[in-house]
Amino acid sequence: MKHILAAVGVLILFVAPLLTNNSFYQHLMIMVLFWTLLGASWNLLGGFAGQVSFGHATFLGIGAYTTMLFYLSLNMSPWLGMIAGGVLGALVALPIGLICFRLRGPYFSLATLAVAEIVRLVALNWDQLTAGPVGLLITTLPPLSLGGHAVNWESKIPFYYIAAALMLFATVLTYAVSRSRFGAYLTAIREDIDSAEAVGIDTVRVRVSALVLSAFVVGLAGGFYSVYFRYIDPDAVFAISLSVEMVFIAVVGGLATTAGPVVGALVLVSIAEVFRERFAAGHLIFYGLFMMLVIRYLPEGIWGRLRFLLGLTR
Amino acid sequence: MTLLTVSGLRKDFGGLRAISDLSFELRKGEILGLIGPNGAGKTTAFNLITGFIPATAGTALLEGQSILGLKPSAIVKRGIARTFQVVKPFRNLSVLENVTLAAFLNEPRRVRAEEKARATLERVQLSRKIENNAGDLTLGEQKYLEIARALATDAKILFLDEPMGGLNPTEVENACALVQRIRQDGTTVILVEHHMQAIMKISDRVVVLHHGVKIADGTPHDVVRNRDVIAAYLGRQAA
């Protein structure tokens, strides 16, 4: 059953963008994939290990700026730059983790929020590096040809498949983690951190590793963001609202599940669009209301409940 | 042979000296009881030696190697595992998964770790509850589960913090038998316990703490006749 669902999912993933010529719908599909990617990487730390980070925008921003700056100043291919963004995000996560994981529970969450604000303000004021609030712009992407055909970067389709590949990577990674000893250790930490230590789990090292892994994937996503939108500024990629949205995706979908972030992103991106269209200025009120209803009536998330109803839990 | 040597162990909580200059030895293969009135510092002593709280001063040597200052998980890897006075099972995980997590320490592969967990649960007679959520067990079963978890780390020494607290007489009887079986299988045990009858019956040696100071150290027979011990429990007059 699980395998069939996964196969159908991958099939849909491949044909979806070909079903429409409307570039707005294609853009929405890309956004669903982008948010799935972010939700899944946040879920690694927040869902499996129960370490709620409110600062994941930090790694998104670092990935975005790394990709952009390496391209603009060193002319490094943005596709390599994306990986560099992931690596740099992971590197920055290391000291952040070592500092913040001295704290537990809500104190950890607050520390991540504080660090994210500091990083955002640094990015905003470090003009020489980031151009501050003016932001960075790429006008053209380097040409790339696949099988003799030049890729058309004015079309959404190539971006869709890049996002799809990233999202598949994150989902497979999540699945692999959930089946591994490392994943079991994350669950133990979520359940009871003292007991985790008492059975020999180095809880600081495991949590830092989860953060680094998570930051790597978010950094990749940041790189993708910069290439797709071709413009970034600190408020676009370091904003607290991005960090919070990642939490929403994972919670609405279902914490500590592989498919949860896919469901969360699908539902939230569509709902945000519908509400924006319907309610114009007041749309965030309805979005907030929806969030409250989900948290009140579906605390285990939409997929968390569905997989239980379908009998898919292990 | 001495397995663990604790000397000059001290813990100050602000102005309060919870443990002062505690020294004792734990010999390989023995059952050592650590007793004392409420607030004597027994659990604090456990927390210090197992690394859960930092000591103010003192040393603890496991087979000649210093363990004080290490993280709890590092101390577990060296061979000291503990249970908690207020049980802390992984509540939403199955009994099997609880113990598998401990078995992972020396057995990275899941299939092998689960095998070992099953065998360990057999030892503490929890096999029939293997699929249950740990949070659904009775208190007695949860205490056994914690013992199984500690055993599955292949510890040389088990630190049991009140394994019989809150158990009924039959359960206490079974717990005594379990501790004795664990020792027979080659694991050294130190336990904090308020259940006097039980501790006198199974301990080879007893250390008595009072207000953070060791006031007696000897066989159960000697300790119950020690004037300081009687005074600590019952007051000066009775002594």
Describe this structure in words.
The complex is a heterodimer of chains A (314) and B (239). Helix content of chain A is 75%, strand content 3%. With 314 residues, chain A is mainly α. Chain A has 2 domains: 200 residues, no CATH class; 75 residues, no CATH class. In chain A, the strands form 2 sheets. Chain A has a two-stranded antiparallel ribbon. Chain A has a two-stranded antiparallel sheet with strand order 2-3. In chain A, a hairpin with a 2-residue loop joins strand 2 and strand 3. In chain A, helix 13 packs antiparallel against helix 14. Chain A starts with a helix and ends in a 5-residue tail after the last helix. Chain B has 239 residues and is of the alpha/beta class. Chain B has 9 helices and 10 strands. In chain B, helix 6 packs parallel to helix 7. Chain B is globular. The relative contact order of chain B is 0.17. At the A-B interface, helix 8 and helix 9 of A face helix 2 and helix 3 of B.
Structural class by sheet pairing and helices of chain B? alpha/beta
Oligomeric state as shown? heterodimer
Fraction of helical residues of chain A = over 70%
| C-alpha-based Rg of chain B, rounded | 18 Å
Low-confidence stretches of chain B: none
Q: Could you tell me the number of beta strands of chain A?
A: 4
Helix content of chain B: 25-40%
Amino- and carboxy-terminal Cα gap of chain A: 12 Å
